[in-house]
Amino acid sequence: MIGSAFYYIFLVPVILVSLTVHEYAHAIMADFLGDPTPRRMGRLSLNPLRHLEPVGTLLLFFAGFGWAKPVIVDPANFRVPRRAMLSVAMAGPLSNLIMAILGVALLKALAASLSYLALSPNAIMLLYKFCETIIIINLSLALFNLLPIPPLDGSRITSYFLPGKYRLKYRQFEELAPMLLLILFAVGGLGVILSPAINFSFNALNDLFGDPLREIGTYLLRFKTGGMQY
Q1: pLDDT at 91 over 90
Q2: Would you give the DSSP letter of residue 205?
Q3: Selection from 213, 12, 16 nearest residue 125 by Cα
Q4: Does any domain span residue 205?
Q5: What is the pTM of this model?
């Protein structure tokens, strides 16, 4: 049970930082490619208050997925608008993937340091849950936003690769897309879609870094936990 408590303690700061980084990545990419709109609107900032959207933030707490306030860009300011819009769309999910990788790297560093650090099982579990929260929240944000449903980033990415004759029809789908998202949320469809992808991605990153989860678990088994659940 202590692990669950740690998870919720870390949830608020991790969500705030992860959402902020996601939207900041959109803004800084647009600014880099020549569109000053995000800068003028105050979105080129790491202040969470500039980026949070109440409903999307609450959903991330209670449903495991969510969104922040969209970054507004003006394609007319880009030299190559379609390519620039693709780059801006990809910047958000990519930033969350990088943060998830950072979380696994921290897990690996923890696992490699266990024999040198005089840490109690509780301290180890606290550090583990901190890293796990970073990984899960950022994988959730990245994968949710990659869904090809407008107005999510995945829809912009999908639109770029569609042939011209299908692109217009796909854009017409934008009017119905928010309702589709609400229906998927109401019936639990988003969880069915995203949970396997999140678990697969988590395990893949863990394996890529040499399975630090197993190393930490094995180390913790050497301690008498006094009935605590890990």
Answers
A1: yes
A2: H
A3: 213
A4: yes
A5: 0.88
In a domain, 230, yes or no: no
Name residue 19's amino acid. Answer: L
Whole-angstrom Cα distance, residue 81 to residue 52? 27
Domain tally for the chain?
Answer: 1
pLDDT of 44-58, one tens digit each? 999 988 998 888 777
Catalytic residues: 23
Distances (CA, A) of 98 to 22, 62, 93, 94, 102: 10, 24, 9, 6, 6
d(CA 133, CA 75): 35
Residue 228 inside a domain? The answer is no
Domain assignment of residue 99, given as a range? 2-220
Q: Which two tokens stand for residue 82?
A: 């379609």
Cis, bond preceding 151 (omega within 30 deg of 0): yes
Q: Report the helix count and the strand count for the chain, using DSSP H and E.
A: 10, 0
Give pLDDT tens digits for 55-78: 877 777 776 666 788 899 999 999
59: in domain: yes
3-state secondary structure of 152: coil
- DSSP letters, 12-24, are HHHHHHHHHHHHH
Q: What are 131's two structure tokens? A: 């890293």
